TrEMBL record:
<dbReference type="Pfam" id="PF00571">
    <property type="entry name" value="CBS"/>
</dbReference>
<feature type="domain" description="CBS">
    <location>
        <begin position="8"/>
        <end position="65"/>
    </location>
</feature>
<feature type="domain" description="CBS">
    <location>
        <begin position="99"/>
        <end position="155"/>
    </location>
</feature>
<dbReference type="InterPro" id="IPR046342">
    <property type="entry name" value="CBS_dom_sf"/>
</dbReference>
<keyword id="KW-0129">CBS domain</keyword>
<protein>
    <recommendedName>
        <fullName>CBS domain-containing protein</fullName>
    </recommendedName>
</protein>
<dbReference type="InterPro" id="IPR051257">
    <property type="entry name" value="Diverse_CBS-Domain"/>
</dbReference>
<dbReference type="InterPro" id="IPR000644">
    <property type="entry name" value="CBS_dom"/>
</dbReference>
Amino acid sequence: MEKVGDIVNKKVITVQRFTSLRSILKTFKKFHTLPLIPVIDENGILIGIISLKNLIDIFKPAEPEILKTIPFLDERPIEISEVELSPEMGHLIVAEDIMVTKFLAVNEDVAVEEAFRLMRLHNRDQLPVINKEKKFVGFIGLFDVILKIFKEKGII
């Protein structure tokens, strides 16, 4: 049984908790679509994930907590061209401000089939991979799993 660690993509750009928004955007602008951005601490431990949704949330105006409890208010469209953003935000907003700290990750010792099951169950195209010490190893994606199966079947 092949493990996630055998097919994990280790060529991943990471950022640290105090990386500025400007640096994050410059680093990732060369990608066709923005991937999940792993945020690691000084020991390489995965502490957060930044997604495209987290970047879009920057455009949302700050609202009092009481308004966040009214469901239909959350569905208002964001008019990004009307949002006032100052150039200083590029330096003032850091990864830690926008990352999510509750995320699904898979251990490198897990079977590939289990990682695939988790991706399908949680509607994810990719998952961060960590080792026993919770250090970030890389990503495994649906394409990695499909490619593995095609190789096993002799198609490629």
